[in-house]
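Following up on my earlier thread - several people asked me to post the actual chain instead of describing it. Fair enough. Here it is, all 122 residues.
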Amino acid sequence: MVTDDGPGLSVTDLAEANELLADPPPGGPPVGRAGLHAAALLAARCGAQVSLRPGSRGGTAAVVLLPAGLVTPTTPQQATASSTREPGENELPVPTHSGLPPRLGVADPPLTPTTTAAEDDR
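Reply from S.P.:
Thanks for posting it. Predicted structure:
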């Protein structure tokens, strides 16, 4: 769960956001909702579910439910060992899930800009 302590969302805005998270429109994000749309598409890609609700201290809480196939159980000793290891050392394999696209978990090459900042200002 991720929470913020901001002003929160109205009941109507919360319902609209949850509808978008549950069923993102195929034609792209509604105006001002690109972040929610991206979260919905990423969740759908890996079989996760994302929803919003009022936070316990105000603000909004985002709840993300992951499929069991994406979670690797650890013991406290494993968690401590993994936080102290060097990057790349003893990396765990990316879990597979029969419903996932084949590229999930594979690092894409870095994006390169197609225009320069000067071209963007035109």
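Residues 2-102 form one domain. That should answer part of your original question.
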